[in-house]
């Protein structure tokens, strides 16, 4: 569930009317609900109650806003990071270094040094070449890196091709069939302590069966690695559990069902389990609030042109992703419409022939389930300012990222000396 509900005919975020935020901050604007973030984290933690001290390492890439991270740090979350920038964000938000896992296929030597000096809990290695580099960096600093290899189990997650990560043709991890040899070589390297295994097969999974196949395969590998003499302590099972975007489609598996499956599969592993939920925690905790510029007649259905665009919310253009679209102040009427933004791309389309609340120019519209992979993927295409973000807590709210003025974009560009000289 989320905390975006109608009161007296107006959509609220918790106890704050979205009309109030729009009038004060302008549109488009992302709005997040603290109560929803906290509830989703609590529900996921409760779903893992049968496990012994699991680490919930929130996937920072889903929504890296400092206020969101601080909210989760207060709730007890760790962090899964995939860049030096995300690592710095997690540390700044108060997440303990020992609860941070560094994933990602392209860690640089500088990022490795940053993480080693911070004292993070684990590096998830994606290749033997990466293990070699990390060994060299750690040895040069006189430090030790605690590592796991990310295993590619060659399991089809059954999700969108662009967010599938566990098949043999994907760029992630090392092949399952070379893992034992890779672990043997890594254990012999200086500056490295092998402590675990890791797996993550994709995002927005709506079926537990692929996860169960992947975890079962990892369990077999864990037994083999122990037989080879490796003293394993952790197993990172990644994230990827889907959330409901389209209310007309069947609900994804619940966290409770997921937790029960994990407890059953891992019962004899004897390892501390790590989880990397992102979308599951923040997806339904945010909306993108936008205003209708005008309604334009179309050949079949009218075009509802809003002031949010593909640069603000990339998911529909990138993945053909579905977001529920609701009027903030519904008129009680419905129509079929094409919802589009003002960017000069046909791909700047949020929905076609969508049954939705009837809206007119100046009406406010909310794109639901926009708390994950929304603001964090935004760009300044068409010289559009980055969208501000607001966090609500009960009846209080605050701007947690200001709207970037276009003048700041222009000021960030530098003219080469020959153009400056010509204009002098």
UniProtKB/TrEMBL annotation:
Reactions this protein catalyses: meso-2,6-diaminopimelate + H(+) = L-lysine + CO2
Pathway(s) the chain acts in: Amino-acid biosynthesis; L-lysine biosynthesis via DAP pathway; L-lysine from DL-2,6-diaminopimelate: step 1/1
Residues with PTM N6-(pyridoxal phosphate)lysine: 61
Keyword Repeat: no
Domain Orn/DAP/Arg decarboxylase 2 C-terminal: 30-371
Subunit structure: Homodimer.
Protein name: Diaminopimelate decarboxylase
Gene from which this protein is expressed: lysA
């Amino acid at each position: 569930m989320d905390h975006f509900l109608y009161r007296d005919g107006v959509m609220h975020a918790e106890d704050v009317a979205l009309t109030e935020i729009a009038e004060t901050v302008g549109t488009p604007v992302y709005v997040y609900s603290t109560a929803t973030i906290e509830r989703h984290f609590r529900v996921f933690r409760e779903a893992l109650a049968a496990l012994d001290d699991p680490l919930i390492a929130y996937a920072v890439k889903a929504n890296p806003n400092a206020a969101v991270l601080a909210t989760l740090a207060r709730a007890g979350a760790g962090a899964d990071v995939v860049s030096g920038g995300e690592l710095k964000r997690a540390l700044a938000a108060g997440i303990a270094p020992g609860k941070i896992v560094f994933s990602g296929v392209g860690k640089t030597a500088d990022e490795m040094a940053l993480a080693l000096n911070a004292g993070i809990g684990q590096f998830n290695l994606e290749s033997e070449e990466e293990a070699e580099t990390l060994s060299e960096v750690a040895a040069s600093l006189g430090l030790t890196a605690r590592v796991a290899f990310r295993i590619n189990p060659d399991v089809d997650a059954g999700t969108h091709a662009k967010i599938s990560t566990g098949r043999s043709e994907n760029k992630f991890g090392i092949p399952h069939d070379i893992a034992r040899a890779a672990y043997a070589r890594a254990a012999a390297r200086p500056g490295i302590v092998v402590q675990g295994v890791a797996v993550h097969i994709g995002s927005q999974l709506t079926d537990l069966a692929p996860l169960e196949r992947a975890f079962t395969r990892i369990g077999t590998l864990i037994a083999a690695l122990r037989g080879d003499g490796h003293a394993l302590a952790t197993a990172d099972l990644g994230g990827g559990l889907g959330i409901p975007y389209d209310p007309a489609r069947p609900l994804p598996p619940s966290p409770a069902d997921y937790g029960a499956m994990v407890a059953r599969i891992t019962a004899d592993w004897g390892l501390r389990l790590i989880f990397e939920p992102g979308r599951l925690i923040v997806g339904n905790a945010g909306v993108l609030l936008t205003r209708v510029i005008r309604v334009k007649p179309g050949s079949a259905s009218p075009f509802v042109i809003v002031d949010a665009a593909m640069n603000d919310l990339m998911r529909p253009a990138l993945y053909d992703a579905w977001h529920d679209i609701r009027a903030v102040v519904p008129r009680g009427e419905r129509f079929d419409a094409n919802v589009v933004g003002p960017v000069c791309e046909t791909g700047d389309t949020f929905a076609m022939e969508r049954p939705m609340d009837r809206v007119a120019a100046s009406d406010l519209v909310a794109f639901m389930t926009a708390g994950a992979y929304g603001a964090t993927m935004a760009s300044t295409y068409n010289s559009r300012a980055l969208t501000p973000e607001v966090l609500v807590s009960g009846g209080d709210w605050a701007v947690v990222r200001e709207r970037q003025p276009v003048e700041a974009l222009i000021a960030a560009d530098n003219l080469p000396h020959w153009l400056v000289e010509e204009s002098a």
